[in-house]
Amino acid sequence: MAEPKKQNSPFHWLGLLKWSIEQHSSDLPPSEWKPMKEEDKAWLREVMDTMVRDDAQEMKLILKTVGDLFLVASKDDRADSKDPTQCEVEEGLESDKDERGQELLEELEDIVCQIDAAVNFVKLKGLECLSELLRSSQIPPLTRGAAAGVMATLSQNNPPVQEAMLQAGYMVLFSDLLQEEGLEESVKLRAFGALSSLVRSHAEAESAFSATEGPELLKILLRGASVRFKRKVLFFTKALLGTGAEPAPPARVEAFWEVVGALAGLLVTEDDLELRENALQLLVNLGQQGLKERLYAAYGAALDEARGVFAANPPPEPENAQRQEQLWKALDDLS
Fold first, then answer.
1. Region label for 290, one of left (φ > 0), alpha (ψ between -120 and 50) or beta (otherwise)
2. How far apart are CA 140 and CA 184, in angstroms?
């Protein structure tokens, strides 16, 4: 089976330059310089071919290799350069394939972090292959998580890819993954990253997420989630609910109001510094949008308790305590 080529180090180019310089003898006048021998030209072409990556061919090869590891039913179709991704999940997968699948998908992620390569990947119908890996609980966790990581990288700040994913229904796929029973949190974290990249900074996706089951999903995720997961949910919610300078649409704030309450509660229940600061910043952002009175009407008891917790047990580092104090003061100073 053909394997994707490894990315070559820039130092290889320096070695090639050094070799080229060594082939030129400064002792000879230009009149005595000779053309390269054919075998030297062939060798140089071979070196150049191995050092210049064709991203499209590399992506196709990775998809085919991953497909041969985990997917069946249409291997002949995957071999077709026009569409290498028609596939179904193989049954009875061997767990020792997991690390290899992860390695291949991480190589793919290195390629699609370039915006143009990500768009080309969608044109190659690569999303279909990744979605099959994500949908099946038979796919081992390292590979499944890596597939979600590729999805996140593909769509991050890339409107054409976000649009393609939105129209193909991947928001539902990621939401289903996040609620799958027994799925490792490491995979769910990467699935949440894919959902966040798909939704953020894409007006239609943000509206669709807010108007459907998105807010309820975030409330579910916050129940019993790890601190790391709560940080990600909080960051995502902050991005959706805007700032004083760029306020969120009123309908979106309304849709996420109970999520805001759950996040405000973290000021009481969590002692993680990053969580507390970002929860406070979220409240300040909403207060700057003219919602301070409503915040205190709905969640005043929790905020008063949180203020008492901060007064009794401020962060031990002076700079951290000062930042939180400044955020509380910013909230108080809002009209």
1. left
2. 10
Q: Are 60 and 75 in contact (CB under 8 A)?
A: no
Task: Quick: pLDDT tens for 216-240.
Answer: 999 999 988 899 999 999 999 999 9
Q: Are 88 and 69 in contact (CB under 8 A)?
A: no
What is the pLDDT, as a whole number, of residue 71? 79
Q: Which two tokens stand for residue 244?
A: 């004083």
Question: What percentage of the chain exceeds 70 in pLDDT?
Answer: 81
CA–CA distance, 175 with 154 (Å, rounded to integer): 18
pLDDT of 292 > 80? The answer is yes
**Amino acid 251: pLDDT:** 96
211 Cβ contact list (under 8 Å, min separation 6): 251, 255
Question: From CA 43, how far away is CA 152, in angstroms rounded?
Answer: 40
Distance, CA of 134 to CA of 137 (rounded, Å) = 8
SS3 helix, strand, coil % of the chain, rounded to 5? 75, 0, 25
Structure tokens at 121: 């990947």
Residue spans per domain, the chain: 56-62+98-202, 212-334
The owner of tokens 């060594």 is 22
Q: Compute the distance between CA of residue 20 and CA of residue 334 in angstroms, rounded to an integer.
A: 68
Nearest to 241 by CA among 263, 272, 221, 223: 263
Fold of 56-62+98-202: Leucine-rich Repeat Variant (1.25.10)
Across 60-134, the runs of DSSP E, i.e. the strands, are: 71-72, 88-89
Terminal-residue alpha carbon distance, the chain: 67
